[in-house]
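ARCHIVE CARD
Drawer: 12
Card no.: 0347
Subject: one protein chain, sequence and derived structure
Cross-reference: see card 0346
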Amino acid sequence: MKAMEAMEATIERAWSVLESVPDPEIPVVSIRELGILRDVRHGDDGVLEVVITPTYSGCPAMSQIAEDIAHAIDQAALGAHRIETVLAPAWTTDWITDEARDKLRRYGIAPPSGQCGHAPAETLKPIRFAPRKQDVVACPRCGSHHTEKLAQFGSTACKALYRCLDCREPFDYFKPY
């Protein structure tokens, strides 16, 4: 029973430690707040497993995220660990916490608007391809909805470049998917 309690305490501590691991491209939000950190558990062999899902399958930041996770776990002396990257279910912007959406806005990135309608990570649903209505993107600086898309891709592939037509400032928009 003591061994089980120790394992549970390690998992709780790992979640706490990993809460402070920032996203390398958007350092004001953690990988947990973005929904990249999916699970912390012990494998069948007792080794601590950290499960992560990339924001998209070609995300160049995943190796840095794995390195940052390993460093955080090592610094916290949590013992042997492995990092597992899972692609299914696919990450969705629906997994971004409300707190992270506020942090993105304050940082100057318009968070994704609305819901993508994806199921929670624990539920698998078939993917349906259908045209999406164009979202109205609010400027994260002045709040105006009078904005225009300048480019489909912004500073990273998961963001689009927009400009506010009122305050004239450019900004990234975290694309919903």
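Annotation on reverse: The mean pLDDT is 88. The CA atoms of residues 89 and 121 lie 6 Å apart.
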